[in-house]
Amino acid sequence: MAEFAQPQLRCHTCALPLPAGLSQCGACLKAPPPLDMCLAAVPYAFPWAHLMADFKFHDQPALVRFFAHLLKATPWVEPALEGADYLLPMPLSRQRLQVRGYNQAQLLARQLNAAKTRTDLLLRMVDTPAQHGLKRAQRLTALNEAFAVEPLKVSVVKNARLVLVDDVMTTGASLNTAARVLKAAGAAHITGLVIARTE
Fold this sequence. Notes:
Layout: H1 26-30, E1 37-43, H2 48-57, H3 64-72, H4 77-83, E2 86-89, H5 94-100, H6 104-113, E3 122-124, H7 136-142, E4 147-149, H8 154-157, E5 161-169, H9 173-184, E6 189-197
Parallel strand pairs: 1-6, 2-5, 5-6
Antiparallel strand pairs: 3-4
């Protein structure tokens, strides 16, 4: 962690690296995303990419303890967790959950704060293609209609401060699509929280 997880100045709404003196990137200034804040611990690069592949695809869910520790050591993460009403792990489709055996985002959210973790508010409506295999334009359109707020729980989302938890952020398509749905249901503030951000 000392060598590969040094804090890095990042855009506060998309978590891309920034030069000193800036707080938001030009793309987010021009077209503000539905996320009010976005936090990432590390870049999606060596050695993190290999560890995250083990965590996600190679049946090593025990790595969640290390990743939660890594996130809690990241600037602004503890205040975001403390200020949240609920942590919402990004939901997996039923098909992908059956193949993998667990939802890595759900494991991570529970490790960060089990009492605030809710898996019943944000629903995955359709099974979309794996994001890592798509080009940027395909990612941005593949998730249309992918998420919904549980109709019987809209009142829980309304005016809530939420943290959306996921493992990796690439284009931000998944997190931003989910955030848009939650904002439409009345969420007051949404923070995206990921272990790694592609750069």
